[in-house]
């Protein structure tokens, strides 16, 4: 593979720094972890560089099995033999690792959600094209757009759509037979949260009120 | 969405701890980040709970756009109008965010790679089924298996296949026209690394020697 | 300008070495940076050849906006129409770049601080002269000398005065209306540290205790 | 000083990494350096986060006495008893440290130079105000603007003005009696270079041709 290049020097230096401190201080734990992982929860969050669930939830290595994709979306169950990276991650977490929780975390200023809004409101024809991976991926959120398009300002729509990205994903999670079964047998609980990057806030979806409330 | 449950108390407590400390100390930076992200690099790593690239590379919020999937795989370019979460993340990072680097990070004891090995060597018929999301996802790595099946022990094969997960992904990255174009124009460089969880090591793929060398 | 001379050969050679290695490996990132800088922090440190904040903090190009002057001093706000290089750097960082942090870094064996001590204790009359640029610059630190002159040994006084160079600068920073406003609105935080060159240590000023503590 | 806050955690971690690696491996040299600095050269460069002279010139700790200000400017000699941070740094480097070289390094995409251009061409009245530190600082470069204003496009003017920032500074350096004396006695040489951030280039001012040539 002739196109690979050496890592930037600052990353090499930082790695050596990590090795000599964090790794060195925790080597016993890392060696034990090498035998196998036993995460408590799966987290589905956005690729966005500003969202660090390990920091927000004070996680140690080995605690969370983390899948990150554009706009923290879960597609509906579709066992058609095609490649579904998100569904594979969920299947592995729930059936092989048997995690106790799946947390879907949305966030403010989400570029993917903004793209979906532009596309659904006819302002981004390039995202409608068959060849747009981002557009086709954001199709998952179209049912969410249906529920927020009545809102007056674009800002209100975007905020609501960021939260729909969490709700639609939770709904789609329940279409996976192995997820529904684990939930019904009490072996798995689902959680939805939305993170405000600038304000450092966290809101939690509450089933009874069908609302997000600050925690 | 009636199945959502409140977050476990320990996560709520840790969030409040983060809010009172890390967030509070960095609020100015997080507010600035809320205006937009300018990550330098995209990292593609595994969902595995033991792999923390932000820790290994001493990253601050805002530095890396991170996609995590099973076995850090990139599928080949396939603009068929279906949902491709990994391809969407790559498209967004390279064409919208214009990151300067894409780093694919593999790791030791990878459950996904082990599954691929079992499947390809006929020991896991359940992964061959159309309905297996993990199996179909690991199909991406079959070309890598072809290259390692001559090795004698299963251990050697697994180690080599973990590195093939990096190489095959780098090869597939170059099948995306916008990736190849950015690489050829000098606006993007690709990097492949493999992380030894227990030993805290990092090896880098070197194009000239077609080998991974310790850094 | 007839007095300019060619660069020493060893610098030319090192530049070519950098171009062929570090630049070559990071060209994509440097090209992106050429479009604009988005530094997170401003660092104010000494010109001293022994103080390298980019090394100490594992910084990549583009991370820190760095002003270096004798003894890392910030003068008080004085909008008198004269030339104030340090004030201009602070104004640009805070109002144009909108950095989230300003870090003032003092250090051990600081020649500027030693000069201030000699001058204030009457041992360096040449620094008292109107024509002494170093003397007039170190006048900024006279309020710091007032606070340490009660200490018995010259060594204690010098150590304390090096830390006063940090504290007085932080105090002066708050006299700039745009700094005070950004701090009060939570868009900027100020930090003071002192670096021990020989021992490789770092101490941080803590507001509650009014002391420097090792980190 | 009640406004100081703790350092961001990622900087603390990186410092500990540096301490355990770079410092640890060079402790003997750093301890020796603690006894005194003997830099070969003074470098005057911009605060811009994209300009790292230590990287470009492969510098070790202790090699360069570095002053960084907006647009790498040197004001004319003006011993009026006011505070002149740049003049103090030059005085200390030349008369106390007796450096053998002073290198003024300009660079591409310089925000300060762009501001000067806007101000001098009447497009930035806010920079004309007495209270603008950046404006008053950039007054130093007005003689350079006189020489480039005949150029037709703004782009040509900006490029030429970035180089004038080097030439004017070299000229002003020679107005300092102690600089002129050291130059005339052969104890100091002056050098002017301009760095192209995106392309990684370096051009050197040549006195004979009055031009910058690539090195």
Automatic annotation (TrEMBL), chains A, B, C, D:
The keyword Zinc applies. One of its GO terms (biological process) is carbon utilization. Keywords: Lyase, Metal-binding, Zinc. Its EC number is 4.2.1.1. Its cofactor is Zn(2+). It holds the Pfam family Pro_CA. One of its GO terms (molecular function) is carbonate dehydratase activity. The keyword Zinc applies. It comes from the Bacteria. It catalyses: hydrogencarbonate + H(+) = CO2 + H2O. Belongs to the beta-class carbonic anhydrase family. Reversible hydration of carbon dioxide. This is Carbonic anhydrase. It comes from Roseovarius albus. The gene is cynT.
């Amino acid at each position: 593979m002739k196109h690979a290049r050496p890592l930037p020097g600052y990353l090499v230096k930082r790695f050596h720094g990590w090795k000599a401190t964090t790794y060195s201080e925790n080597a016993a734990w890392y060696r034990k972890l090498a035998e196998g992982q036993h995460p408590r929860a799966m987290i589905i969050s956005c690729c966005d560089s500003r969202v660090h669930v390990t920091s927000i939830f004070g996680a140690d290595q080995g605690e969370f099995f983390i899948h990150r994709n554009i706009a923290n979306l879960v597609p509906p169950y579709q066992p058609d033999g095609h490649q579904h990276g998100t569904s594979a991650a969920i299947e592995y977490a729930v059936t092989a690792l048997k995690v106790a929780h799946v947390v879907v975390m949305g966030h403010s200023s989400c570029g993917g959600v903004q793209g979906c809004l532009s596309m659904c409101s006819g302002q981004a024809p390039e995202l409608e094209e068959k060849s747009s991976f981002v557009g086709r991926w954001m199709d998952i959120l179209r049912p969410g757009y249906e529920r927020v398009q009545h809102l007056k300002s674009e800002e209100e729509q975007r905020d609501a759509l960021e939260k729909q990205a969490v709700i639609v994903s939770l709904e789609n999670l329940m279409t996976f037979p192995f997820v529904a079964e684990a939930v019904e047998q009490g072996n798995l609980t689902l959680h939805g949260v939305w993170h405000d990057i600038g304000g450092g806030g966290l809101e939690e979806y509450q089933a009874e009120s069908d609302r997000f409330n600050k925690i």
